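Researcher: Going back to the complex we discussed earlier. I've cleaned up the inputs and rechecked each line, so this should be the final set. Can you rerun the prediction on the complete assembly and write out the structure?
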Amino acid sequence: MQHNMPTSPLPNPVHLECLDCGHLTPFSVTAVSCPRCGGQWREARYDLDHLRPLLPATFLGRPFDLWRYTELLPVFGPNPLLTMGEGGTPLIHAANLGMMLGCPHIYIKDERHGPTASFKDRQAALTITALKDAGITEAVLASTGNVAIAYSACAARAGIKLWTFLTSLVPPEKMREVAIYGSQVVKVTASYDQVKQIAAEFARQRGLYLERGSRSITSVEAMKTIAFEIAEQLTQRLGPPGTQIPGSQGAQHTPPWRAPDWYIQAVSGGLGPHGVQKGFAELYRLGLTDRQPAMAHIQSAGCAPMVHAWVQGLSQADPIRNPRTLITTLATGDPGRTYTLLRQRMLDAAHSAAGAAGIDERPARGLAAAPGAAAAAASGGVFDSVTDEEAFRTIHVVAKMEGISIEPAAAVAFAGLIKLVRLGTIQPSDLVVINCSGHTMPIEKSILGDNWTRDIDISPQALLQTPEEGLYAALSRVTADRFARIAIVDDTPDARRLIRRILQAQPTPAGDFTIFEAADGLQAIQLAQREPLDLIILDLMMPEMDGFAVLDALKNDPRTASIPVIVVTAKELTLEEKQRLQGRIQSLMQKGEFLNDDLLDEITSLLP
Ligand SMILES: Cc1ncc(COP(=O)(O)O)c(C=O)c1O
Ligand SMILES: [Zn+2]
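Model: Rerun complete. Updated structure for the full complex:
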């Protein structure tokens, strides 16, 4: 599939192609549907023809992290305020496991090295960077834990308020981690698929950005970087593939990078492998690799809708209504269109591999009857499942054999590796990369105090007691309709971001504020006249109209005279200046001398 797009002078002219009607639009993080048909499923397209001669040279001098591949991402590069070194995780040779399994070429992509110890850090970094660029200050997501943790860390740096909707089955340690970062935690007693629906409705009602998994362009694109890094790292270790691309014209072309025969990952909604698969496909189309790996998508047997569909040769997965797995991280019962897309890309890859090798294609199912890398490549890979018991046992195997401690969801992939080797689907000579997608550190248990979740209970038992409480009706208790309205007046963006963050990072409904910003005195006065404000946080040293002049104007206008004011200043005040403030402000706080909670206490004491 090649796409003819106008060549833009921009380094990354990213377009979105609607998967329903083919309409192309320039990328925008906030425009979430096709303007022509309203379809929500779109994919980012790059001008690969333009990029081909520039790659990989353009990447090579840059740091080894996610941002190295900016030309193939929908942002212009990292935001230095936000980045914490995401991406660039190690690729580790699993020598002991490999020897045990009789497969010497197994490599572990160790995503525990992300800032919050899972592969979701990539998704969070890219999405929050794009949201920050777009001026978004509040967002919503549903999660089984790791997405919420990764986004919360990044949102803290960005000054973005995050509403996280978590199933009550998420381990308390993970929920607490989300709350520690200052995100709002809404604990929902329901299945994960229902939690996603509730979060979506909450976002819709409030007009907030919603993380949409495989439909969120930045999320999918971020996951591609796993494929890019793997190809570079394999090449560094094993050298370039040194093979001719059959069918290429003219002189022999040696692709510079090596792709594995197999890529294995644990799957819930399928976002991760969806992005990784796209990454490998782009590398192949760019001529940077000579193959696309067979994909092994491994699900937990108690929640394996994709595996059921694959085995039956179906292009759509039937949802599992009652997932029965202890591994809540992988409890997506309804993968929706992601399964269809994963499968389609496998078939496409198989088609191009078969074409290149001049062999007949095999049917895209029944792999057990046709084991081996050649067969796998000819079918694009496999969906398979493992039991919880196999996964838990594998945690111990990987820790003891490789010194790598993994969470149950990641163990599902490793148990899948063992299963596929035993089945003969993966062969001893195959080059295999497995995604070690997460590791949860033990976390602190005492600093949060009580009441740090907002609870929704729509379990059958709860509905019996309050039958009028429907799925969405319960949302009205998550937060008040009207929040206290606070203006931050400061000419320094960093200072505004800091104060915004202090206001947002409160776990309880008492910490819900509607926040306004003004970057100079004039804006502040106009804002105060326009909006009914409950409080103003005012800087003193601002060019043109300083804080004293703003105070004069506010106090001389009967509409604004009674709004309480907290002055937050870096200025050492003279006696005369202090007298000028006397009786006109409620509080004076010296920058550098207070911590977040001090300011917050002051604010809450002044609000009605
Ligand atoms: C550690 C870990 N592995 C695997 C997955 C599966 O994710 P997905 O199917 O969305 O790529 C998740 C999802 O949260 C996860 O946290
Ligand atoms: Zn469309």
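Model: Worth noting: Residues 1-10, 243-248, 361-373 have pLDDT under 50 and may be disordered.
Researcher: Good, that matches what I expected from the previous run.
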